[in-house]
Specification:
By secondary structure, the chain is mainly α. The chain contains 1 helix and 2 strands, in the order αββ. A two-stranded antiparallel sheet has the order 1-2.
Length: about 80
């Protein structure tokens, strides 16, 4: 039979592992995007043609993966250049 202290230890272990998983996911997303926070939610209707309120958007540093041949440092490589 489990004692009260065993329940507390189990609760702390579960909370700690959940926090560690969230931290690792956050660090991976930060490593991939180069900005913090790497994801934001659309909060208004200003983007309504393309996105709805509540949508999650993954943000990324503009120059994160831009090759040297990109047009005007936008990260876009044209068909002719490519």
């Amino acid at each position: 039979m489990l004692r009260e202290t065993d329940h507390v230890v189990e609760l702390l272990r579960e909370a700690g592992s959940s926090a560690a998983i969230v931290l690792v996911i956050g660090l991976v997303l930060f490593g991939a995007s180069g900005v913090w926070p790497p994801m934001v939610a659309v909060e208004s209707g200003s983007m309504e043609l393309h996105m709805q309120r509540g949508d999650l958007v993954f943000l990324m540093d503009e120059q994160r993966f831009a090759p040297d041949v990109a047009t005007r440092r936008t990260g876009v490589v044209t068909y002719r250049t490519g």
